[in-house]
Amino acid sequence: MIADKHPEDIKAMIRKKGLSMEALSQRLGYCRVAVGVTLRRPWPAVQAGIASFLGIDPSSLWPSRYEADGTPRRIRAASGSKSRGSAEARLRQKDKAA
After folding, report:
1. Which of 21, 53, 63, 66 could connect to 35 by a Cys-Cys bridge, CB 3.0–4.6 Å?
2. Which stretches of sequence are listed as region Disordered (predicted)?
3. Which CATH number is 7-75 given?
């Protein structure tokens, strides 16, 4: 498997094209930290924007985040996280108690 580009390499590519990560985030219509977050965690819409700005395919920057056909991989929630169902059950319990 081909490794993802290092976040510092992606930052350098963005800077060489004349923008800061904050400016690119805002140009893409997201909060100022969106590009920085995307360098650490998958965010397909922002990944696509970064790749488009750089003139390359997102799967060439983050091959681990994409299937062979180029579609983003679905990332599973961490095993320790609570599911939506359990949160809904807690809310129902509170309604019954009230």
Report:
1. 21
2. 72-98
3. 1.10.260.40
pLDDT at 35 (0 to 100): 98
Q: For residues 37 and 28, is the Cβ–Cβ distance under 8 A? A: no
CB 62 within 8 A of CB 5: yes
pLDDT of residue 91: 55
CA distances from 5 to 36, 48, 58, 65, 67 (A): 14, 15, 11, 11, 16
Helix residue spans in 1-98 (DSSP H): 7-16, 21-27, 34-40, 44-54, 58-61, 84-97
The residues near 49 (Cβ < 8 Å, ≥ 6 apart) are: 24, 28, 30
Of 47, 46, 41, 44, give the one whose Cα is nearest residue 78.
41
